[in-house]
Amino acid sequence: MFLSKILIFFTLVIFTISSHTQHKPAYIIYNKYGEQSDFYEMLRKSLDSDIVLFGELHNDPIVHWLQLELSTSIFEEKGDSFVLGAEMFEADNQLLLDEYLAGLIAQRNFEAESKLWGNYHTDYKPLVEFAKD
Asked: d(Cα 108, Cα 95) in Å, to the nearest integer?
């Protein structure tokens, strides 16, 4: 519940920021030709694709939020045919991740035993929880 409230607050902040994009944009999306695009065009192109690779910087919270928004939007359209990969986890954490996503181990055990990035709770956990849900 607390995580949901944080995500709602963060989303509202981002939408507030994006409503003032002419002054201080939080992000700018470019297409493959280097032309400025927008989220909905990126979503449309993503829905037309079999695989979407989302390039990112591991310490950029705006990009992680955008990943979550894109993933959520694709899932709303594709449903169970949507698969989310997580390259930010090391291979030796795969079993722990699988067990957590399957509900076989508690969140606290997963987080205590996995090698997590320093920004896991703010940037990656929302994606992991989305995948789990």
From this structure: 15
